[in-house]
Every structure is written in C-alpha cells, then in structure tokens.
Amino acid sequence: MYLSHSWLHRHKLTGMLAAGLIALAACLGLGGTMAHADRWEIFDQGEHLFLPEGPIEVGEVVMLPLRPVSERFGYTIASVTNKEIVLSHKDGRKAVIRLGTKTALLEYEGGAKVQLMAQIPRNYNGAWFIDLALAGALGGQGHSTVPGTNFIQLRPVAGDAKEQLERQYWFSFKDQGQTVFVNNQGQEQLQTPYTSQLDFGYDELLPVKKSGYTAGYMNRAGELAIDAPHYQLGLFSEGLAWFKDLVNTENGGVTVRMGYMNRAGKVIIPGIYNRAYDFSDGLAKVTRAGKTYYINHNGQMVIPPIPGLQNSESFSDGLAAVTVRTTAGGKSVLRTGFIDTAGKWVIKPIFDSATPFSEGVATATLNGKSGLIDTAGKWIVQPQYSGGSTFLGQFRDGHILLTLSGKHDYTQRLVDTKGKIITVPGTGQLTGFGDGMVSYNDTGGYGFKTVAGQVIVKPMYSYMWDFTAGAGKGFIDYNEVYEAHLINKAGKVVWSTGSPAIE
Asked: Reduced to 3 states, what is the DSSP secondary structure of residue 85?
C-alpha cells in the first residue's frame, strides 16, 4: 500500500481507509516515499551530491549549479562577464562558457573542443546553472543515467550502480521513542530524538520536529543543520523548500504566509504567498491575494493567472493539468487540459477531469469514462472505464493500478505505459506496485508478490508500504501495538522493531 497526501486528495474514493493509514503513519513515523519518487538524484563516483540549489529542469533539460560542480572537478571560476564565464583548472586548462548560446570551449591536453549544450546557461538567485552535457564534460567522462532509475551519474561508480546507490536510501521508523533510519540491508544509519513522518530517502536534509513542534532541517549526522522553527516545512525540490508561517492580522485573526528557502537555510523567495507548492520543471504554483500563478526560481511570475481557472496542478513531464470554466453546448462546464511551462495550451481543456502526468502518461476522463493519454493528448487506452472501474493513483515504476467493478466486489490489474493490462496470477486484490513488487490482500492480510505471481511475502501484515530502493515495509497490529518490518526482495526481514524478525 503506497500512500501520499496528493494521491489521497485526488482519490477520495479511498479517503476513509487512507485517513486511518495516514494516522497510523503519523503514530509510527512510518515514513513516506512519494515525495522522493520523481526527482532526479545526482551522484558522482557513488557520492550523492549536496547542491545548494537544484537540480532544476528547464524545458525537460536537467541543469546543475556551476560553481559546486566545477569545483568538484578541479575548476574555479576565473571571471564572469555578460558574454562568457571562464573556468580555470588546477592543471592550467581553461573552459569558456559562452552565455546566451549553447556552446562552450573546453581545453584538454593537446587541444580544445566545442561542447554543445541542450540549454543555454541560466542564472537563478545569483548562481549560474549548466546542463548535464557540460557538467559531464567538465568531469571528463560525460554523464549517464542508471537504467530503470532516476539516478544520474557524472562519473560512474564501479560495479552494479543501481544496487550500490540504492543502499544510500534511508527508511524511517519510530522505535522506543527514537526515529531510526535504516538502509535496505537492514543496517541502522542513525537514531535521533527528532521526529519525521518521512523517509530520509537520498536527501541530505530532512524537515524534523522536536516535542511536536517544527525544529528545522536535520542532516545525515543527526544534527539540526538549519534551525528553521516555522509552522511547517516542505521537502527540498529543485533545491528549494517551502516554509509556512502563521501571521497575526490587524483585526486579530491569523493568516498564512509562505515562501522558499535553499539548502543553506537562506530565504530565497520571501513569505508573501497564501499557498506555495513544490518546484518542478523549473516552476512553482503559488497563490496570492486570491490569484494563482506560476513563478520561477527567482520568484518572478512566468505564467500569469489563467482566465476561468478553477484548479491547477504542479508541473510534471513538462505539463500542468489545469481546470477552467468554459462553455459547451450552451452550458457552463468545467473542463481540464494541460499547459506547458510557457503557459500555452498543449492539450486543450476537453476532459471532464485529468491527473498530472507521471512517466509520460496521465489518466483522463471524457464523457464520464476514463482512459490513459500521452503527453500529446493521444489516447493510449481509450476512455472506457466507469461505474466504479477506474485507474488509481499515478504511474510508478512503469505501472498503474486499474480497479474493476464486479457484481459483488472489486478486483485490480496492473497497466503498463503502453496500455497493456497485466493480471497477477492468483491475485485479485492488488493494493500497490513498486520496484517490481506487487502488494496484495488475501484473507484479510497483506503480502508481496512478483508480477509473475511468485509469493515473496505471505499475506501476514496489517499494512504494507510498497517497495522502493530494494525494500518494502510491513506492519503487524498486536492489539494496536504495531511491529514494523523492513523486507528485502528475497522476502527476508532485514530489520524490525520490538520482537525478533519473522522469517
């Protein structure tokens, strides 16, 4: 079972069950993973990079801050003009980045070469950003993406990259009054009195509370790296995290003010918004004085308020779902479509409703029936599901859940990004999918299977959190006293709270 706040908001069908599970999560400190799922993770020689800001996606191109990346490869910034940035290497070589163009000149032993970029260098908050092609070239080996993951390597690690890098993901549990972080091998990485409902994931900073109140951001050493006692704090996305404050008004009331800070704890965009959301594709959705629009990393409005706007989502896959009030057949109706990062309609608002894109696919409903569309608005699965049959959640690891309404109950199937329906042998009640593993319900308990139907974990758990980074979570209810297990892909419990692990 794989839950997140955004998923619950869009799928009220399961709201009562989900609300109970979220309460359970808060009680146990189970740790969610959805917030980490769709972000690029940047590694160099096996080390996860701590960047002051970024990575940022601009026009579907991943961009990194120039200074920390170039310094990692032995360069310093020698000069900056309105035409070029000159880098000097410790061995005497130079690199010249031509601003306003997609080219750079890199010196190497015996000559020089022109390096092409997919995006022109950008400046955000006084820092220059370069694309992955140039970053990889500065490192001397180019960059690569680990297949089947969101891992980008500037210089690769030796051996099985996926296996090694996934060990850097930290799962969160609450145990004996402490928050415990564990990797997928079951090795405890950190115990702390600070509390968090989220996995640490691959991040270097995590919002935490102390004695029930927001404290700030904790680093992987368990230190409060950023003292930020705001009312609420968000996770870092593209290197910026939102903060929320409650401010007294002149008439004795309270109003919300939200802004953004970077990983150094510096407020980059002041707290002037009533609502602020995570950055994605270089933009963040904000609301101020009753108007909703999108801003860039400099806090500048990029997409102004959209006429007739009723609802909008954050960007994903370069598109944002937007619902507007329009006229159809002489009647005032709500219709949903998708805009790009320039604010232009790429998919016209013709749908009854639609979810944000994930892995290049979105769920859309037309004339009361739901199907799947691609980023061009073409149907992958024709609109055909209604009356309780529908898609649940979003695509994750290449699949989405499809629930089918029968005479007496519901059954679930997996659907891949091509629209192929997959039946998991011997299983009708699927509850989630992640990292190649299916969570399922049978005889009142939850377990894990492979897509081929092989039982990995028998249905013995009261609740389960789907696999990510090579492990999944299971929870057993002993008269409202919960025991938590971390389970690997062989079905072995590698770590547990309380009682000894169950084999």
From this structure: strand
User: What string of DSSP letters covers 183-250?
Assistant: -TTS-EEEEES-B-SB--BT-S-EEEEETTEEEEEE-TTS-EEEE---SEEPPPBTTEEEEEEEEE-T
CA distance 400 to 364: 13
Q: Is there a contact between 284 and 301 (Cβ–Cβ < 8 Å)?
A: no
233-245: average pLDDT: 96
| Distance (Å, whole) CA 406 – CA 413 | 13
pTM of this structure:
0.88
* Burial degree of 316 (CB within 10 A; 0-12, 13-18, 19+): buried
Residue 358 DSSP label: B
Amino acid at 202: Y
Q: Is the CB of residue 173 less than 8 Å from the CB of residue 30? A: yes
Query: How would residue 9 be classed by pLDDT, with cut points 50, 70 and 90?
Result: very low
Mean pLDDT, the chain, as a whole number? Answer: 90
Whose CA is closest to 217, among 171, 263, 178, 183? 263
What pLDDT, on the 0 to 100 scale, is given for residue 401?
A: 95
Question: What is the 8-class DSSP label of residue 12?
Answer: G
pLDDT of residue 72 exceeding 60, the answer is yes
